[in-house]
Amino acid sequence: MTATTTEPVTAARGFASDNYAGAHPEVLAAVTAANSGHVTAYGEDPYTARLQEVVRGHFGERATAFPVFNGTGANVLSLQALLPRWGAVVCAETAHINVDENGAPERVGGMKLLSVPTPDGKLTPELIDREAWGFGDEHRAQPLAVSITQTTELGTCYTPAEVRAIADHVHTLGMRLHMDGARLSNAGAHLGVPLREFTTDAGVDVLSLGGTKNGMLLGEAVVWLGDDDPGLTYLRKMNMQLGSKMRFLSAQLIALYEGDLWLRSAGHANEMAQRLRAGLDGIDAVTVTQRTQSNGVFAVLPGGAADRVRESYRFYDWDPATGEVRWMCSWDTTEEDIDGLLAAVKAAVA
């Protein structure tokens, strides 16, 4: 038998998604350190216990973390915890739960989504009221939760005051608030405030805490921020999101959030997006369409230019009808990556 080796694959750098980046070395080291001996399965391990302390340090003494495998699972579980079977969720039309989760909230979670168009991906109390009606009408799915994304799918960021205004409004209506925090760290880096200032302290009821987009191998967490028990222990298992070897999920989240790795990694990605934005502002043929408040840059290119740039860098069309594209920066994006992309854009539109 001939021995074989697997050579590392060196792929071209891309700007399609922050999911394209590899795992941060500090996260990998944490996984290796956790891979020692036998510990109790299904979360009864010292790593998951330590994660609870880390999460409470960020989000307050009432916070409880439930590690899961991915962001869709975190979102579905969070929303199930907020809703009865007849409940509906108000969200932005561009929300990940509405656009990119293949019907999971509806088919797996059993809930109806009530989407609202927004100019920048952000909801407001006034926009929420477009769908927050019909309470007590048996013919209408009851709007009992609101889901906002921080930062949004358009790269924009809610301020703590904006989150508080939404939370106060929906709580007055008898609704509850979920935050999809897949890029929560990028929001924290942009705002320069503690994570709890725009989550727990602003009135969020349940949080999907991101990790994969900011340097983890896989995994996120549902963080319940209230005193009551919504049954997340049972919902997680029922929805196939309970990891038997949970220590490896928890160890990654500890590596990311116990110190400042979450902030360093997200801050760097945001800085690279600002570098890209500054370079694009100097190209007359390119129009940036959204505020650059996290690690994403959205812009409209002249006809055919995007495909020419894609000969060197992978990225996605956001709106093919208008020529709008999305470039995402990651924890490992370099200045050379940004300068190379800018050079390709300049050549394509020349």
TrEMBL record:
GO BP terms, alphabetized: amino acid metabolic process
Pfam families: Beta_elim_lyase (PF01212)
Coiled coil: none
Molecular-function GO terms, alphabetical: lyase activity
Domain of life: Bacteria
Family annotation (InterPro entries): ArAA_b-elim_lyase/Thr_aldolase (IPR001597), PyrdxlP-dep_Trfase (IPR015424), PyrdxlP-dep_Trfase_major (IPR015421), PyrdxlP-dep_Trfase_small (IPR015422)
Keywords in alphabetical order: Pyridoxal phosphate
Family, as annotated: Belongs to the threonine aldolase family.
Protein name: L-threonine aldolase
Organism listed in the record: Zhihengliuella halotolerans
